[in-house]
Amino acid sequence: MVFKQLLHRIAKSETVGRHPGPQNLSLPAVPTTPTLSATAAVSLRDDTFDLANPTAYQLYALAGPTRLRVAALEVARQKIVAFDDHPLAGLADLPAAAAAHPLLGHAGWARLRLALAGTTSTLLPAPLYRPGDENAYLRPHHTLAPTEEALAYALPLPAPATDIVSIFAARHDLSHWLYTVHGPSARLLPATSALLAGLLHQRGTTPRQLYLSLAEQELTAVVLGARLEFCNTFAVSTAEDVAYYTILVMQELGLNPERDPVTIWGELTGDSATFALLSTYVRQLRFGARPFGVQYFYYLNEVADYRHFDLFSLVYCE
After folding, report:
1. DSSP per-residue string spanning 82-114
2. Do the strands 187-190 and 111-116 form a parallel or antiparallel pair, or are they unpaired?
């Protein structure tokens, strides 16, 4: 019975949009954008990074509607040694932006993973997945444009609780560019798969709880216990939206905002209106840490540990 409930929840989850909540949930309006303001392009390089030797590195990138973030991992030391955070005009501009990027446009990496945020995706238990039926799985959530295709990505942690396949939409020209430049071993995946891979990799024996990731006007909520219980992405534009959907998920999943811990990553600060409002309702709210098992070069010391968890979690994506 528990597994059937899991299948039902997962099959209906991971769609972007607004959902009606409980009638007794009322929050004050805080018309402040929930994410950090856009900043100038950032490019950081470790002194040892050598672009002339790309086979020594794995390249990870995460693209959203307004940003393209890239990190290079030195394989020998398992250390992030390059980091870029550049503005992006939109996902339609991604193939051209990626081709012109000094790292993404360079071929020969030991591994390349490119995650997409702001695109429609859905989660499916692996026992229900049949290759070739991606369009049918995605159809209830999204009508593919002529320029799009439906793709699949399986989480790299096969176990009864985590054997999940993501079905997502991607542009034909993007996948064509990726495989032409970087070969068939390069992979496209939805950003939520990277987030889940990071959470599942390092949660250990942590009790059942809610995890949040906030970036580019989207809030992703994940509830993990002995198994993945819930994953959904909500469109948000205000601090009120973030608080509303957080409390909604906790109520629907039987979590107590007064008692149960909530961990958040993403584009906000401890003194932001979003964090202040959310902490009013969630008493055990805390920022998350970077993915474990990876080293980070010293230039990233100036970047808060709770930022870019989804990007750095791509190291766990096969």
Report:
1. EEEEEE-S-GGGHHHHHHHSTTTT----SEEEE
2. parallel
Q: Is 265 strand, coil or helix? A: strand
Provide the whole-model pTM: 0.88
Give whole-number Cα distances, 49 to 52, 79, 123, 226, in Å: 9, 11, 37, 40
**Residues 65, 250 contacting (CB under 8 angstroms):** no
Looking at the domain assignment, is residue 121 inside a domain? yes
pLDDT mean over 119-135: 93
* C-alpha radius of gyration, the chain, whole number: 19
The answer for residues whose C-beta is within 8 angstroms of residue 78's C-beta and 6 or more apart is 293, 294, 295
For residue 95, being part of any structural domain is answered with: yes
For 156, the token pair is: 């790299």
Q: Which residue segment(s) compose the domain that 108 sits in?
A: 42-200+291-305
Residue-wise pLDDT for 169-190, tens only, equals: 999 999 999 999 999 999 999 9
Sign of CA dihedral 270, 26, 195, 206: positive
Interhelix angle 239-252/273-281, rounded to 10 degrees, is 30
Going edge to edge, which strands form the sheet with 262-266? 228-235, 218-224, 209-215, 262-266, 285-287
